[in-house]
Amino acid sequence: MSGYHPTIPQARQPGDGDVPLPAHSANYTPLSPLSFIARSAEVYPDQLSVIHGDLKYTWSESYQRCQSGAARLAALGISTGDVVAVIAPNIPALFELHFSVPMTGAILNAINTRLEAATITHILEHGGAKVLFVDKDSTAVVTDAIKTMSEPPLLISIDDGEATGDAISAIEYESFIDASYLRDELPAIDANWKWSLPEDEWQSISLNYTSGTTGKPKGVVYHHRGATMNALSNITGWHMGPHPVYLWTLPMFHCNGWCFPWSLAANAGTSVCTRTITAEAIYHNIEAHGVTHFCGAPIILNFIVNADKSIVKPLPHTVNIMTAAAPPPASVLLAIEALGFHITHTYGLTETYGPAVMCAWKPEWDALDDTERAKLKSRQGVRYQVLDQLDVLDPETLAPVARDGKTIGEIMFKGNIVMRGYYRNAQANEDAFRGGWFHSGDLAVMDPDGYVRIMDRSKDIIISGGENISSIEIEDALYAHPSVLEAAVAAKADEKWGETPCAFVALKNGESASEQELIDWCREKLAHFKCPKTIVFRELPKTSTGKIQKFKLREWAKEV
Amino acid sequence: MSGYHPTIPQARQPGDGDVPLPAHSANYTPLSPLSFIARSAEVYPDQLSVIHGDLKYTWSESYQRCQSGAARLAALGISTGDVVAVIAPNIPALFELHFSVPMTGAILNAINTRLEAATITHILEHGGAKVLFVDKDSTAVVTDAIKTMSEPPLLISIDDGEATGDAISAIEYESFIDASYLRDELPAIDANWKWSLPEDEWQSISLNYTSGTTGKPKGVVYHHRGATMNALSNITGWHMGPHPVYLWTLPMFHCNGWCFPWSLAANAGTSVCTRTITAEAIYHNIEAHGVTHFCGAPIILNFIVNADKSIVKPLPHTVNIMTAAAPPPASVLLAIEALGFHITHTYGLTETYGPAVMCAWKPEWDALDDTERAKLKSRQGVRYQVLDQLDVLDPETLAPVARDGKTIGEIMFKGNIVMRGYYRNAQANEDAFRGGWFHSGDLAVMDPDGYVRIMDRSKDIIISGGENISSIEIEDALYAHPSVLEAAVAAKADEKWGETPCAFVALKNGESASEQELIDWCREKLAHFKCPKTIVFRELPKTSTGKIQKFKLREWAKEV
Hints:
The structure is a homodimer. The first copy, chain A, is α/β, with parallel strands linked by helices. Chain A has a domain at 461-559: 2-Layer Sandwich (GMP Synthetase, Chain A, domain 3). Helix content of chain A is 29%, strand content 24%. A nine-stranded mixed beta sheet of chain A has the order 2-1-10-9-11-12-13-14-15, sandwiched between helices. Chain A has a four-stranded parallel beta sheet with strand order 4-3-5-6, with helices on both faces. In chain A, a hairpin with a 4-residue loop joins β13 and β14 (354-358). In chain A, α1 (34-43) crosses α2 and α12 packs across α13. The longest helix of chain A is centred in the first third of the chain and has 17 residues, at 59-75. At the A-B interface, α1, α7, β15 and β17 of A face α1, α7, β15 and β17 of B.
């Protein structure tokens, strides 16, 4: 007992000279990815921004084209809060609209090119797009989609020279963004018009309809703040260097290409556009343009792993692939890394700006054997640097599940890269944000090291004799079989067990395997109650983004 | 004229189902670097966070220590808006206070260890610190500084085992953060206390007094938002990979170590602490700990370039150095890159969270010859990815100067990494933010490619016969002379010309050069009116951060 008692000068307050130190134009700017394109045009005017076939643009050219497109939209009266839609594959116009539309304050609604007309009608009516840019290959379906609309959007055709369909409109995108194009079809561009950052970084930047394996698609709204933070986190998380050469295998209409148009603007990278997504195209672009990075669903990995030997070439440098959408089977991970690709496994949803979780790799894992490494890497992982919280919670009580790698709960998110909300859908917002968390609908366990491992979508879990069975676990076992190209498992109603697993399998070209052989294979690897009771050999139904359409499998399973 | 007139459905509005999509706990989190340490502790608990001599901490340990320190501060009544000061070199306690103090909501005031007592008194009185942590080597000066204070802060001693001074207080830092330390000297830590993020990301996180070459130091206030954005921009701009090993050559009390404590938390890097900043210590730490990155004023580069041959070792990998504070002379850049170091040149002020401008390197410059590359790299460059605007403006009209590499104006900033403002100094804020820009006081030209090149501090420019002469240009010429170790130039009053340049030069050990020889050397390289009329050989006076104290040179120049 020293007798010393601390005294803190509690009374000390800032004196009369204090000022409130408010925000003002010198020290506050709304966060927006539009700042990134302005900077790259300023700092790297001659660096390549876009390659599309023989076409090349620099960052100063891209910026000029985006500003010009924005000015024309503004001349048409498009401004803050309006929705501008586009339906196109990964071509330069779609990339540019990621900047030109928000430059006017409007909201970009990029629509999946593989949707059927009725869904496109729903999206256009629900989103209320005022302008719709249409790639020529989508003319037929859009013509069909707008037939029943009393007030269809203004249509602009996009003709990149590679599409074969008719133009949907007399106005073509290149004329649209050309200030010297002066016809009475279009209001002239005001040479004095200048874009500006949103006044509020919470302003909406895009509207993405979930690809929705069931039900009507919901419109997910992103804001400038979230797009900025995810664009930066893509760079820091994936450790992208300066000027990456990024191949657009992932559709830009899918979560705004996981925010990579904006990441590439931040890092002055090059977007290599392509309509053709095959192993051959991937190897060609690596060779021709020095591609360093690309993203894609596991179907892309499958393309590469199962490519004809004549296509495969030694890589001139490590090519980084970010994959997500479904847990890549360990066998596929191993095979693709053996070819010299480096895989980063991420996870996210449309509602989280695309990737918001990543299987952050630890140096000490390098020393593990192949199988162990692949097993670790097939986990979804940990939160992005800018995601505030990721947890696996009991969906009812919202209490965290035990970190035991066994207890199943629902993956939930909190943070700046969670969507602003669903557009015009109060009920869906209430459900999704119940209890102050975003509910993903994905079921997972939390491993003892804090890495999340998805077991299933809520609706994909198979409950057999009271036991939860992960369809993914069975799929992993099937993928490991040398003859299996693709596998997916759904619940089949069963009088005795409630449900049993029914597997749908596509075999590799020239390979064969019997139902019993595959069931026996699974029984060697899995608890017997988890093994499929039925195996159906057939091609698997997929969404345009390569996700297997489990709802179709569930329907088929009923009929088996 | 096609007769086609576009119609846009102007009347279309979001329907009744719309919701305002407000911010709430699932989709909004205040930006704060405290999120980074929480994540690194969660994701990389066993990764090394801190090395100090034989001492090593992991991220989970560092996080635990910071939380414990914060809990003790909270037990003392420290909370939002309070100032907590520290005076220490680059030791673990100073690193930890960068997290523990803001965890309580309070503001960290890290004080330069080399200041004289009177200035420390001023800082403590002006900032109003309630608690002051004191490294044992600073006991004497702090004892002196608080002598005249009617209500000094609560003093806590820091003893890392390497300092030689007495303890200033019976309470030592390790006891302070140890929850099991229960004496009546200190209120007990409440085991249920938990830190939380600030409610508002605009909340102050730190208070840094400018090292001030003249006048009373001003207190620069940073907020959580700016610290977060600069921490990320350090990573994306410098292209730091995962787990960098960072050597603390740059004082953490200088602009919070340019925000690197927070960058390292974001990237789960390792802080190698050291009190000794010599070439020998740098080479030792590279070898012993695999240092990959460090920062420092050009004086650090000088240490390395002029190191004794016996110290220099081949580097095991590229070691990245970020330098700033003064434009590094081309000769120094060349010499250090020849040793295998990679230099990134940045620029900023205390008011811009440290570096906010960088000489972004372009791939095409790699092919240029050494001298040309060094010349390009000695420029200050372009804005950081998260800085909204950087420009060189006429200080009166605020019009941008011509981008001709010749017209001198003042460097000004806008954006999220401009300080909140000066603490309790309304007049200084009014001056610094006049016209909606932050006025740096640094004079520069804008090169045609948009890169800023500093010519001088406003007060360092020499006006001779009506011509502006950049002292830096003369210094560059002098540095290129093989015998010159350091050079600095100040204005000397002159009846005929108004001012003339007076050079102060320190020669390398064992080298010699006469005044006339150096003047002739300059005349070969510079316009004659720019050459020094007088040369004084002597050691140069420096601030603790390695900046040459030009105000002293100006005084001396009067007496020459």
